[in-house]
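WARN retry 2 of 3 for item q-0093 after timeout on previous attempt; input resubmitted unchanged.
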Amino acid sequence: MLLGSQLRRLRESRGITREAAGYSIRASESKISRMELGRVSFKTRDVEDLLTLYGITDEAERAALVGLALEANVAGWWHSYSDVLPNWFPTYVGLEGAASLIRAYEVQFVHGLLQTEAYAHAVVSRGMKGASTADIDRRVALRLERQKYLVSENAPDFHIVLDEASLRRPYGDREVMRGQLQHLIEFSERPNVRLQIMPFSFGGHSGESGAFTILSFPESDLSDVVYLEQLTSALYLDKREDVAQYEQALTELQQDSPGPDESRDLLRGLLQLS
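OK item q-0093 returned
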């Protein structure tokens, strides 16, 4: 995505159309579009030809961009789990691992980055009916591996609003749910985590369209991305007007929900009742 955005910036600054850029590398206009969105792999030769077309002659600048192309083609750690992942999800895992800020609203269950192993096993088992025990265990292992990013040295800020429904809908037995609630209480005290609960008592709210995640990146060239998961696919929205609507919805959810301290008290109350 970073390389694609820089190639787009260079092309637009020279007033070159996608069609002309595609012609220079023996490709279609749509191929250039996918490259600039970071949706396809990069051939070093194509990047070099585009840089020549865009008038980039400085060797250091060319080397840096070609180096990005080489890095972009290296498979991520999650590649080894591709056999148990839907085909649209590896893209999300890569984006999540590159984000400096993750903002989300969840209504069906606890967000994957905050699930305990036992709770995750119950959720995955429900969603992968008929799958082998080995495949379920591998999907859970991937989820736990993703969570390491939240406690790493370069951990992102994570702002999450959980609908009360996600806390009251049981996955697993009583002990699994108690463990999950305790885990949320503990994680909510981490400095990079802002956890809020949208209570039933509030009534209708701005999250009526369902769960979503907004990913922001440290590179200024990269636009925010909204991730929407569906039953058989996922949507990645990066148009400014689309992202702005979801940012507004999340801002309203945060404003209408109890603050982090009050939300932690709500979690403690649910723990006592469980």
